[in-house]
Structures are given as C-alpha cells and as structure tokens.
Design brief:
Layout: H1 15-22, H2 26-38, E1 42-45, E2 49-52, H3 56-80, H4 85-98
Antiparallel strand pairs: 1-2
Length: about 110
C-alpha cells in the first residue's frame, strides 16, 4: 500500500493467496488485514473482499510514518558510529544525488 504496488482503491488479494505468496499461516494474514482495517488502510466489503483505502492523505501519512521510522533508526545508528550532523547531511546529499532519476528515489 505504501509503495503503491496496491493502488488506492485496488482489491487486496484473498487471505489464502497472500498467505501462499508470503509463506505464512492464513490466520496470520487475517490478523494483519484486520489490523490494516483498524488503521484505516483498507476496507472490507461484505461479499466483494477487501480494498485499499481511497484516502490518498492516509496513504501519504503512512509513507511519511515509515520514512520517519527509518530516519530515526538511521540517525541512531549514525550517531552510534560517531558521525555528526554535518557528516550525516553530506552522506545523505551524496546518496540522494546518486539516485537522481532513479524511480525509487521519487
């Protein structure tokens, strides 16, 4: 959902299909999908299955949350290695520039 692999409004594959795809028990998938519904990231339609939310703002917030968590981990690790803010910023700038034009760095 966050990456757009499942677009807003798209039908989510069934529990059994997802379980096979990711190699986990269907009960685990069912619990994960229920949590996604609680978080407002998908909705269930009685006989039609589950669908990714149409709420683009909610999906944008999810992306920001995920990147924020990754940034916190990165900062903690960089500080643990003794890097200061200027070094970290240079590293990020250099890496960002290396990925200019790369679809993953949109």
């Amino acid at each position: 959902m966050a990456t757009g692999e499942w677009a807003a409004g798209a039908r989510v594959p069934g529990v059994r299909e997802l379980a096979v795809d990711v190699g986990v028990n269907p009960n685990t998938v069912q619990r994960a999908l229920a949590e996604l519904e609680r978080e407002g990231l998908c909705r269930s339609e009685r006989t039609a299955g589950r669908y990714v939310t149409d709420d683009g703002d909610r999906l944008d917030r999810l992306r920001v949350e995920l990147v924020g968590d990754a940034a916190d981990d990165f900062i903690a690790r960089a500080r643990g290695l003794g890097l200061d803010r200027a070094q970290i910023q240079r590293l990020l700038d250099d890496r960002w520039n290396q990925h200019d034009g790369d679809d993953r760095a949109r």
